[in-house]
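ingest -> fold -> write
write: protein_1
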Amino acid sequence: MRERSIVRALRRHSTPFALSGVRNWCDTVARRGRSELLHKYYWRIFELGLIWLKQVSLLLASQAPERAVDVEEDVMKVLLVNPEFPDTYWSFRHALPFEGKRCAFPPLGLLTVSALLPKSWEKRLVDLNVRPLKGSDIEWADMVFATAMLVQKESLREVVARCKARGKRVVLGGPYVTTTIEDLPDADHLFLGEAETTLPQFVKDLERGEAKRSYKAAERPPLSATPIADFHLADMKYYSAMSVQYSRGCPFQCEFCDIIEIYGRVPRTKSNHQMLSELDVLKNLGWRGTVFIVDDNFIGNKKNVRGLLPELAAWQERNGHPFSLLTEASANLADDEDLLDSMRTAGFRRVFVGIETPDAESLKEAQKSQNRGNLLDAVKRIQSYGMEVMAGFIVGFDNDPEDIFERQINFIRESAIPLAMVGLLNALPDTQLWKRLEREGRLLGIDASGNNTLCTLNFVTKMDPARLIAGYQSIMKTIYSPREYYQRALDSMKRTYQCDSEPQHYDVVNSIASLMRIAVRLGVIDRERREFWRFVARTVTKHHEKFAESLRLAAMGYHFRKLSEVYGTN
């Protein structure tokens, strides 16, 4: 044990940074009047001494197997790094400053990884969406863990390069690492898929000096094995919402979706006790306001969801309704009014739905069987239970007709969906779409960017690419023009009435500050200020009980307008 501690100590002091420190000391001696000869003499002594120490360290290391982790005598320091998101729909980068926030959600995956590591290890989180990664952060750590979605891949590569340049052991995992066809960054260890069973095995292997390059679970783990995330590592004041996860997997088989490839088609859920315990932790940490249940399809396992919602509603009642809930669900949510009523009672205020397209043939092509029937009526039914509908839309399907762009605009307008994420179809690696296009010889040989709002395509489309991109840009310009957007926001507020006010996480000072930021930026500086004040006036007149909500929608509209200006002109 003692020898291994000595080895670690020697290695810490035998780095280029230590040598540079000695040279700096010698330089100081020389500047204080010592001769140049004495300066070189001292420097040579230290060089020889450090070379000797390094040889001793290598000798000791060869006599005893290296154990990178000695929990009893040496505390492992782990740095958890969340790479930066580019400016996308989900970044909300142009809206967050109005709240005084820096990021929408904390990195739940990394916080869960932290909870899977030994409790005795020291851990720190650096979210590059909140602050830059400093050299001192990297120097502090013994190991660096990072995860990324596809859209974060460029930032991930930069993080890995910086950490490896300082000689750190780097561990990677997450959706990008699991599914990419590209060469991954030069990390020491890779985790493919979910890590509830493989990460504890990695820790054991590390203690024995037998850590492998790659880990992949033999089967998808039950979520009963998922611990409560280390939420305390996140500096909550910088986030707009907190996030928890109830389930993984989706029963449907949308051709373009990678969720079923990563998490499977049999939805696995946490127990009711697990969920309520996580909410207890967030509440005890002082969080109030929005909690995002980040499931890709919250109602994938309807039986279990029906059992959760009454207990969730009772928890909210006992605790004074501290949280406003947001989630993602398939469009068939609208078919189950009992479920909708239970979600309203439990405090759900918003739901993101994958509409994709109003064209029946394109839905059939995408194997989107759950989007059956009248989708406009489905949206209205969800809204009637007090939940704002956000939605995803896609253009670029093989069966898209020439008028698909006008039809998408009309659907978004008539459905009163303020926050509509419209993107170009991209083939994600390992999806059924990717495999079909590969068989047809239509892939262009490049990985997807993960950001389908960029005007780029990674396969040969049936529609002329120039026509497709121009049509996409026309959608973005239209739906996020201020008058068009504000009207949808007003219509949405009219359809989503709830008698109870929504929980907020602002105090009076922060609320006034947010109001002033919005008023100055949108009501004074912005060239579309006339439309903003018209929107405010109509809100006060017809929806005064939703004034705070209207300001949130105004800020979000500004974010999407900025995106449309960037991506609508490429």
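write: protein_2
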Amino acid sequence: MVQLSLLWIGMGVLVGLLACAARLGPGKLPQYTNHKLLSLHSVPVPVIAMLCGGGMALAGGWLGVLLVGQFLATWMALWISIVAVVVGLWAIKKHLSCSPKVYM
């Protein structure tokens, strides 16, 4: 199961990189923050996409093991990571188009 977990994480990271190559997310996040802590705006978009893809593929894989079994879990992990990355990057782009442009 460790090998499957690593496979699912690798698939999710690859999905995140492919989504960035397809330019599904915003091209560049603006460099502003309202506080000193690390915020979403200081992390590059490919890193966000890879983390989202890897995490959701791992969660989707384990959910697939519980629901449909070990052999179909990889396909479920793939589809859950694709949907999560596409929706996540769309939400980031939508959020940035609505947020005020405050530069410090």
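write: annotation protein_2
Helices lie at 2-21, 45-67, 73-98.
The chain has a mean pLDDT of 80.
pipeline exit 0
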